[in-house]
């Protein structure tokens, strides 16, 4: 497998930050190798995906075949449309110290790729389908569930937003989120009401119009989020 790590300066004006890592190039080469049938063993996957090469085929026979099928059933088997979607996508920094994300929508499905930030390590790709790890789609009785989490603050002129028990403005209020407070949400691009998690203890729903993803914040604010333990503690940013 040819090496794909060509270090270039990638200036991403859509997100307001720069990365000296060729994320899109890595993702394009991953899909080229996948569609060409070069990713059929855990060892072949080692260059791209920790999840793909770490799962023992003896323990989960046929895992790689199912893993590949989940992706290609969504993307189709033609590389050019996939490349076009990747090239036209944004590189999204949600304030995670470890990764950025690229999201591709195919009809009613969406794939989210988490690509590591670490300059001294090769780019690896973690993949989720409709917000849930491919691992969990295949190993449905797995003890750990890996859902895609993203960080956000509220977008509300009132200075706070109510979190509802159910996805409806008529549902009861379980808590509220104040201005500049960072919280977790679970992406669902076509939904009007989005599931959120507050301080690792309260779940509920917030209307998508009230969610401002961290990638829309200024660079210095994203750096503040990187230093937060959003899942475990009350975290707020400054203006």
Shape: globular
Q: What structural class results from the helix and strand content?
A: alpha+beta
Quaternary state reads single chain
What number is the mean pLDDT? 87
Described by strand count, sense and barrel closure, the largest sheet is: 5 strands, antiparallel
Strand content: 25-35%
> Unreliable runs, pLDDT <50, ≥5 residues?
1-18
**Lateral arrangement of strands in the main beta sheet:** 12-11-10-7-13
Radius of gyration: 19 Å
**Level of helix content?**
10-25%
Counting H and I runs of at least 4 residues, what is the number of helices?
Answer: 7
**Number of extended strands:** 13
* Secondary-structure element series: EEHHHHHEEEEHEEEEEEEH
Distance N terminus to C terminus? 47 Å
Structure description:
The structure is a single chain. Helix 1 (23-35) runs antiparallel to helix 5. It is globular and about 55 Å long. It has helices at 23-35, 42-45, 50-54, 63-75, 79-87, 134-138, 219-226, and strands at 10-12, 17-19, 99-106, 109-116, 125-129, 132-133, 150-154, 160-164, 173-178, 183-185, 193-198, 202-207, 211-213. Helices cover 24% and strands 26% of the residues. The chain has 7 helices and 13 strands. The longest helix is centred in the N-terminal third of the chain and has 13 residues, at 23-35. With 239 residues, it is α+β, with helices and mostly antiparallel strands.
């Amino acid at each position: 497998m040819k090496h794909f790590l060509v270090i270039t300066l990638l200036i991403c004006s859509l997100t307001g930050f720069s990365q000296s890592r060729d994320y899109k190039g890595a993702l394009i080469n991953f899909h080229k190798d996948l569609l060409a049938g070069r990713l059929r063993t855990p060892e072949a996957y080692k260059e791209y995906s920790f999840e793909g090469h770490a799962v023992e085929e003896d323990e989960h026979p046929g895992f790689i075949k199912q893993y590949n099928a989940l992706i290609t059933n969504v993307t189709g088997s033609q590389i050019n449309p996939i490349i076009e979607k990747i090239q036209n996508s944004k590189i999204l920094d949600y304030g995670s110290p470890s990764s950025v994300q690229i999201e591709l929508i195919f009809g009613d499905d969406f794939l989210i790729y988490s690509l590591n930030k670490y300059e001294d390590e090769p780019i690896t790709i973690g993949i989720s389908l409709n917000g849930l790890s491919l691992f969990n789609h295949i190993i449905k009785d797995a003890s750990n569930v890996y859902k895609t989490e993203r960080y956000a603050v509220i977008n509300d002129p009132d200075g706070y937003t109510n979190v509802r028990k159910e996805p409806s403005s008529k549902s009861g209020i379980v808590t509220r989120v104040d201005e500049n407070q960072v919280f977790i949400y679970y992406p669902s691009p076509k939904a009007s009401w989005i599931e959120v998690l507050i301080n690792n203890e309260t779940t509920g729903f917030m209307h998508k119009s009230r969610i401002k993803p961290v990638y829309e914040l200024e660079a210095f604010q994203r750096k503040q989020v990187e230093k937060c333990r959003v899942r475990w503690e009350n975290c707020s940013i400054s203006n």
